[in-house]
Design goal:
By secondary structure, the protein is of the alpha+beta class. 26% of the residues lie in helices and 31% in strands. The chain has two domains: 91 residues, NE0471 N-terminal domain-like (2-Layer Sandwich), CATH 3.30.2020; 276 residues, Double-stranded beta-helix (4-Layer Sandwich), CATH 3.60.130.10. It contains eleven helices and 25 strands. The longest helix has 18 residues. The protein is globular, with a radius of gyration of 26 Å. 30% of the residues are buried. It catalyses: N(6),N(6),N(6)-trimethyl-L-lysine + 2-oxoglutarate + O2 = (3S)-3-hydroxy-N(6),N(6),N(6)-trimethyl-L-lysine + succinate + CO2. Pathway: Amine and polyamine biosynthesis; carnitine biosynthesis. Keywords: Carnitine biosynthesis, Dioxygenase, Iron, Metal-binding, Oxidoreductase.
């Protein structure tokens, strides 16, 4: 029969907690080892070595008095926990860790839950699975677009669309009526619309009605939008309603693919771009539009516990004066920035598409950069920004990892 081996040791007061050994039969094929050391509890389970702080173990108790399972909210006042708390007894039984506290409260944890939710277990996991791509990889993936009639009426089509969006950072809906109203309708199927200084739903041509180069016929290099917001918009939506002319193809580049190449080839340069915040500004004084937006943050942002990349903030148009980098680092920053730019501008990383009436594209603005080639004639686009939180919430509600 499988055996679980324990060794409890409290370094602070060895006379009160003599070393003991316990053998317990477990319904498990894994050997688990537990050490009790100072302020934390060391548990080896299923290939993961976890260091579980005692306060953390009491704080995360899922008993009815500590946690409301209906609302998924904590009932226990974390500030009421003694910071020197220790369990008076500990055992594993039927795949669960049982801890009895000084006030006789009992906490029970499923070992698999601990393995998934401990710091060490979380470090091994990916917050959001992705497929990194260049143009060849994306074209070979042959990602199918969603269809207007299906996505509006079928949750399975919405789920498939969101799965593609999460994996590739871009997804398309076809056969959408070429109107602002229909575009708004399909975006609301996915998420809430984020209203900004540009309005809720915007519709523009090359009339320079706003103080932004997007309102022109000029080519635009790859960039992410709203880098000058404290929190850049999460999703960008475009729908070309009309184009009577030539040119105007849309450029898409997987910024994460380029950034991961930088991490692989020049880890120090990658790290530098994650550490140094820079400013982006949007200054507008056109007609009734008077704005001065400022966002401050590093070009690349990673989760601190697993170093997973989750946002790229890259916009050479709106990057402001660099006065956040000391003189002995600025040259290194420019070198790192140049290397990232070189990766972003490699022709094989460029996916060029022609947006036609009826096709709506959803772009992860924290990952995929967009640009365009210059064009002639009347070109009318509509679109909006979506709230990132609500897109991810919709995906999780459909059972996707996001």
């Amino acid at each position: 029969e499988p055996v679980c081996s324990f060794r409890f040791r409290l370094h602070a007061r060895p006379q009160a907690f003599p070393q003991i050994r316990i053998r317990i039969l477990l319904l498990s094929s894994f050997v688990n080892t537990v050490h009790k050391v100072g302020t934390y509890f060391e548990l080896h389970y299923n290939g993961t070595s976890m260091h579980l702080n005692y306060v953390w173990l009491r704080d995360h108790c899922r008993s009815e008095s500590s946690f409301n399972a209906k609302t998924n909210q904590r009932e226990l006042d974390s500030a009421s926990i003694d910071l020197d708390i220790r369990p008076v007894s500990t055992k594993v039984e039927d795949g669960r860790l049982l801890l009895k506290w000084p006030d006789d409260h009992v906490t029970s944890y499923d070992l698999n839950w601990l393995s998934e939710n401990s710091y060490e277990g979380n470090r091994k996991s990916t917050v959001q699975p992705r497929v990194l791509w260049d143009s060849d990889t994306y074209n070979k993936a042959n990602v199918p677009p969603a269809k207007w009639d299906k996505i509006m009426n079928c949750d399975s089509e919405l789920k498939r669309f969101l799965q593609n969006y999460l994996l590739f950072g871009v997804a398309f809906v076809q056969d959408v009526p070429a109107t602002v109203e229909a575009t708004e309708e399909v975006t609301q199927r996915v998420s809430l619309i984020r209203e900004t200084t540009y309005g809720r739903m915007w519709c523009f041509t090359s009339d320079f009605s706003r103080g932004d180069s997007a309102y022109s016929q000029l080519a635009l290099d790859r960039h992410t939008d709203t880098s000058y917001f404290h929190e850049p918009c999460g999703i960008q939506v475009f729908h070309c309603l009309k184009h009577e002319g030539t040119g105007g193809r849309t450029l898409l580049v997987d910024g994460f693919n380029a950034a991961e190449k930088l991490r692989e080839n020049s880890p120090d340069n990658f790290k530098l771009l994650t550490q140094i915040p820079i400013k982006h500004d949007y200054v507008e004084n056109t007609g009734n539009h008077k704005n001065h937006m400022r966002g401050i943050g590093p070009l690349l942002e990673v989760y601190p516990w697993n170093k997973e990349l989750y946002m790229i903030r890259y916009n050479n148009y709106d990057r402001s004066v660099i006065n956040t980098i000391p003189h002995n680092v600025i040259q290194s920053w420019y070198i790192a920035h140049r290397e990232l730019t070189t990766e972003l501008r490699r022709p094989q990383n460029e996916l060029w598409i022609k947006l036609n009436p009826g096709t709506v594209v959803f772009i992860d603005n924290w990952r995929v950069m967009h640009g365009r080639e210059s064009f002639t004639g009347l070109r009318q686009l509509c679109g909006c920004y979506l709230t990132r939180d609500d897109v991810l919430s919709t995906a999780r509600g459909l059972g996707l990892q996001a």
